[in-house]
């Protein structure tokens, strides 16, 4: 996957850091003083989902840029290539190596009780990042930090609802499909739940679902599958950036135009993350109408949790990051749902 340019990372850090909720303290990321010797270092074993998306790459870079020797850490990084079995193996190796902390970005929610019990019995605190784990006993992990995925989904759908009202589009004329993320992951479960609730509430015609696994290639396959069954689809709800880019390729190859003018025959694309320059350019040129921000910069927050634990404090168990909405039009300035209001950030062609 093309690496991110410095400009893209600066943009992401600017947008994402200004959206961090108050919970992230302003202390430096280092946990030890300078000239750390090997035995002084805090050893962190990090099991990452994989490298399936732009979001994931920035998330990995955020963790690696914080957990450095200069900051007093030794990071053991394991990429699971989106397989839970690889994550379980990685956690067991961290236990064998007697790391000080285990950080897990779980690929899906279930199947963690046994290995997290082993970590608990070894006395190693586990911090969950990004997606959640569904375990019988929440003492199996110390903290979780990540996004409210259902809220992300509802905010994007509320933006669409406001847009359709503004344009006089009848809800029954909205023929919408959902390209889902990795089935069983919190991001997919939450974004799909938000979509289902809002589509039902507004009376949209849901023409189908297809699994996109949060990747561009599977996003292409999913869009092709949807088009084969429903050529009248005029809105595509993609559960991440990479899927949206794949869907746009397929729609354009089929002679369709991606854009907000669904009354004029265009196909509206909405998605989540807002990480890649390519996706931001699609918003600026109108191919993508709205993006639900998904904040990838978990490194500083996890470091803050570890510093608290090192100091003998008890950090908040569940830490949600605050996220916004990006769109190509200034016609909708704010979106409100479930008591949560967000100001829309307008991305235009520079
Ligand atoms: C969301 C994260 C999702 C991103 C995708 O926090 O779990 O996984 O939205 C990534 O891009 O693959």
What is the secondary structure topology, with strand pairs?
Elements: H1 6-17, E1 42-48, H2 54-66, E2 73-79, H3 84-96, E3 101-104, H4 113-121, E4 126-129, E5 143-146, H5 149-167, E6 175-180, H6 186-202, E7 205-211, H7 216-229, E8 235-238, H8 241-253, E9 268-273, H9 277-284, E10 290-293, H10 299-310, E11 318-320, E12 325-327, E13 334-337, E14 340-346
Helix pairs in contact: 2-10, 3-4, 5-6, 7-8
Bound molecules: beta-D-galactofuranose (GZL).
Characterization of the model:
The protein is α/β, with parallel strands linked by helices. It has ten helices and 14 strands. 50% of the residues are buried. Beta-D-galactofuranose (GZL) binds at residues 52-53, 55-56, 130-131, 147, 187, 214, 240, 272-273, 294.
Could you give a short account of the major beta sheet?
A: 8 strands, mixed
CATH class group of the largest domain = Alpha Beta
Taking the alpha carbons of the first and last residues, their distance comes to: 25 Å
- For the largest sheet, list the strands in their spatial order: 7-6-8-9-10-12-14-13
- Name the overall outline: elongated
In quaternary terms, these chains amount to single chain
Find the CATH topology of the largest domain: Rossmann fold
Strand content: 15-25%
Order of helices and strands: HEHEHEHEEHEHEHEHEHEHEEEE
Number of helices: 10
**Bound small molecules, which ones?**
beta-D-galactofuranose
User: How many separate structural domains?
Assistant: 2
- Let me know the CATH homologous superfamily of the largest domain: Response regulator
The tally of beta strands, per DSSP, is 14
């Amino acid at each position: 996957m093309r690496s991110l340019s410095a400009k893209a990372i600066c943009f992401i850090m600017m947008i994402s850091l200004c959206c961090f909720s108050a919970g992230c303290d302003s202390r430096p990321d280092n946990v030890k003083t300078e000239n750390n010797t090997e035995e002084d270092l805090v050893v962190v074993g990090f099991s990452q989902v994989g490298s399936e998306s732009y979001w994931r790459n920035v998330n990995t870079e955020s963790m690696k840029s914080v957990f450095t020797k200069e900051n007093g850490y030794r990071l053991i990084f394991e990429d699971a290539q989106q397989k839970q079995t690889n994550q379980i193996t990685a956690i067991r190796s961290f236990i064998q190596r007697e790391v000080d902390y285990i950080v897990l970005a779980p690929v899906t929610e279930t199947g963690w009780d046994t290995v997290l019990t082993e970590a608990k019995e070894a006395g190693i605190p586990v911090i969950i990042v990004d997606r959640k784990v569904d375990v019988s006993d929440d003492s199996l992990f110390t903290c979780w930090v990540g996004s409210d995925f259902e809220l992300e989904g509802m905010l994007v759908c509320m933006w669409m609802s406001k847009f359709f009202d503004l344009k006089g589009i009848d809800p029954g004329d909205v023929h919408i499909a959902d390209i889902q993320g990795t089935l069983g992951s919190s991001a997919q479960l939450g974004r799909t739940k938000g979509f289902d609730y809002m589509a039902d509430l507004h009376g949209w015609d849901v023409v189908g679902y297809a699994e996109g696994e949060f990747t561009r290639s599977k996003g292409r396959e999913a869009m092709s599958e949807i088009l084969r069954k429903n050529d009248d689809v005029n809105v595509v709800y993609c559960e991440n950036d990479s899927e949206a880019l794949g869907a746009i390729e397929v729609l354009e190859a089929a002679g369709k135009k991606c854009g907000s003018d669904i009354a004029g025959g265009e196909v509206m694309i909405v998605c989540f993350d807002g990480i890649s320059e390519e996706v931001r350019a699609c918003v600026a040129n109108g191919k993508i109408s709205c993006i639900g921000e998904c904040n990838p910069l978990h490194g500083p927050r996890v470091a803050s949790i570890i510093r608290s634990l090192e100091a003998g404090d008890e950090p908040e168990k569940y830490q949600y990051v605050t996220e916004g909405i990006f769109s190509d039009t200034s016609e909708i300035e704010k979106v409100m749902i479930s008591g949560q209001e967000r100001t829309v950030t307008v991305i235009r062609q520079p």
